[in-house]
Design a protein that fits this description.
By secondary structure, the chain is mainly α. It contains 15 helices and no strands.
Length: 358
């Protein structure tokens, strides 16, 4: 197992380089950039200044640089900006410099905010961790018992109507379901049971420990519910199909023929084998819920998380944040893939990746 883990860790390096190279290459064909973004911002600020001053030619000294932006930035200032963003170098040099920094876990600072990329991610993590952890746990707590029940009652009325509800839930777009929750339960047209924004109240720091926990849980009910709906449906059907596949195998018939009770067969043989694929997929399911539709949920519920951070970075052409987060999350995804394989061995020790050649 040690050799397999080492091989997987070693392969992460070229995989990460490939991910970064593809995205870096695509970015080169995207029109605009950080300098164009700065010029556009200066021109819009200058236009606003013109409206305030009545379009006069004389402005205060503090506004001179803004007013000048409407007529184009000086060439020497543009050169300084290009050096600051490393845009004065060829693309291939910028890529190697970037990867060298990233391999040392040096991600630099945001182009437009005086804060490091890592600090930005830490600042947004509470929202994304909340959605990811609670949504994954809720999906597993509901889906596994429901999926097992559906497998045992396969073809019954319970299986039919519950499948209808699950398929309908899966078909509802996440943003529509989130808006529906807001309208019905957060002061829209019906009830004012839950808050419609943020992870905690304004007076959170003044509350007792129990009050803080209660306030936090009160705030996350709607966004976590909206995040769980898609994963819940998929996991339920996966659990059901996994158990049905094991129930119909020959070893189950043999075990029953030997006189074992149904519970002994189910929990002694079927359960472990059927749960292999479900439990081993937990890390990947967590990552999927962690990022899937996070932007939509954050926008609807006014949450400032990683989804909104990535979206704003792309819009602002803040490439330091774009590539920094891409590298970090790409690395996390590769590590999670390895953890998923190790979960197979943990659930079923008969699996041996060591004997594989690749």
């Amino acid at each position: 197992m040690g050799a397999y883990i080492f091989r997987r860790l070693w392969l992460m390096i070229p995989t990460l380089i490939g991910i970064m190279l593809i995205n870096f290459t695509l970015i080169q064909f995207v029109p605009g950039g950080p300098i164009e973004r700065i010029i556009s911002q200066l021109e819009s600020d200058s236009a606003a200044t013109d409206r305030i001053t009545g379009g006069g030619s004389e402005v205060q000294s503090g506004e001179a640089s803004i007013y000048e932006g409407a007529r184009g930035l000086p060439p020497d200032l543009i050169e300084d900006l290009e050096k600051q963003f490393n845009l004065d170098k060829p693309a291939y040099q910028r890529f190697f410099i970037m990867m060298g920094d990233y391999f040392r876990f040096e991600f630099g600072e945001s182009y437009f905010r005086s804060i490091s990329v890592l600090d930005l991610i830490k600042e947004k993590l509470p929202v994304s961790i909340t959605l990811g952890v609670w949504s994954t746990l809720l999906a597993y707590l509901i889906s596994i018992p429901l999926g097992i029940r559906k497998a045992v009652k396969d073809g019954s009325g319970f299986d039919t109507w519950s499948s209808g509800i699950i398929i309908a839930a899966y078909a509802i777009p996440g943003f529509l379901f989130a808006i529906l929750l807001l309208v019905v339960f957060a002061g829209g047209s019906f009830f004012q049971w839950f808050p419609n924004r943020g992870l905690w109240s304004d007076d959170f720091e003044t509350l007792s420990l129990f009050g803080k926990v209660k306030d936090y849980l009160w705030h996350i009910v709607l966004p976590v519910t909206a995040s769980t709906i898609g994963a819940f449906a998929t996991l339920t059907l996966l659990t059901k199909n996994s158990f049905l596949d094991e129930i119909n195998k020959q070893y189950v018939v043999t075990a029953k023929a030997k006189g074992l009770r149904d519970n002994q067969v189910f929990y002694g043989h079927i359960f472990r084998n059927a749960m292999l694929i479900v439990i081993s997929g937990f890390p990947a399911a967590f990552i999927a819920v962690f990022f899937q539709s996070s932007l939509v949920i954050e926008l609807v519920f006014s949450l400032d998380g990683l989804g909104l951070l990535g979206f704003n970075a792309i819009v602002d052409r803040d490439y330091a944040v774009v590539f920094g987060t891409l590298y970090i999350f790409g690395l996390i995804g590769l590590v999670v893939g390895l953890i998923s394989d190790l979960m197979y061995v943990f659930v079923d020790p008969r699996i041996d990746f060591e004997s594989r050649n690749t």
